């Protein structure tokens, strides 16, 4: 019998250190992590994926495309996609008037417990 697949989390952040931090928190908690250093690459992978990620964890402030743009584009493909927006530069007010909103918001810096419980609560919704 095959072990059940781990839920896949796309981690999108232009800071390699923060990608590794998210991976260090999520993998021991039973998640598979696919990391992207820019939103364009994440969107391309999302578009062509055979099985979509359970959750997308995206930073807000990135070079070419910000996290809200990525959320909007992913939701055009899959309106029910679960997405968590993280940021150390803005707060939840940034998406108040946005058409496509994240399921949750997490301020940086965050602790492992905070990230894992947010991912679990988004998946439980």
Q: What would your notes on this structure say?
A:
The chain is an alpha/beta fold and 125 residues long. It has a single domain, classed as Response regulator (Rossmann fold). Helices cover 36% and strands 20% of the residues. It contains 4 helices and 5 strands. It has a 5-stranded parallel beta sheet with strand order 2-1-3-4-5, with helices on both faces. Helix 1 (16-26) links the parallel strand 1 (8-12) and strand 2 (32-36). Helix 2 (39-48) packs parallel to helix 3. The chain is globular, with a radius of gyration of 13 Å.
CATH homologous superfamily caption: Response regulator
The best one-word shape is: globular
* Biggest β-sheet description: 5 strands, parallel
Radius of gyration: 13 Å
Q: Note the gap between the termini.
A: 29 Å
**CATH architecture grouping:** 3-Layer(aba) Sandwich
SSE string: EHEHEHEEH
Kindly summarize this structure in a few lines.
This protein has helices at 16-26, 39-48, 67-77, 112-124; strands spanning 8-12, 32-36, 55-59, 82-87, 104-107.
Question: What are the key terms here?
Answer:
125 residues, alpha/beta, Rossmann fold, five-stranded parallel sheet, 4 helices, 20% strand, globular
List the SSEs and their pairings.
Blueprint: E1 8-12, H1 16-26, E2 32-36, H2 39-48, E3 55-59, H3 67-77, E4 82-87, E5 104-107, H4 112-124
Parallel strand pairs: 1-2, 1-3, 3-4, 4-5
């Amino acid at each position: 019998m095959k072990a059940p697949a781990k839920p896949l989390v796309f981690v999108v952040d232009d800071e390699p250190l923060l990608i590794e931090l998210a991976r260090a928190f999520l993998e021991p908690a039973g998640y598979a992590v696919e990391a992207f250093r820019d939103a364009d690459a994440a969107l391309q992978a999302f578009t062509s994926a055979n099985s979509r990620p359970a959750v997308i964890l995206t930073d807000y402030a990135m070079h070419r495309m910000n996290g809200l743009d990525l959320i909007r584009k992913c939701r055009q493909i899959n309106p029910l996609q679960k997405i968590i927006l993280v940021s150390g530069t803005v707060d939840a007010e940034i998406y108040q008037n946005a058409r496509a909103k994240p399921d949750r918001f997490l301020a940086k810096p965050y602790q492992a417990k905070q990230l894992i419980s947010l991912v679990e609560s988004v998946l439980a919704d």
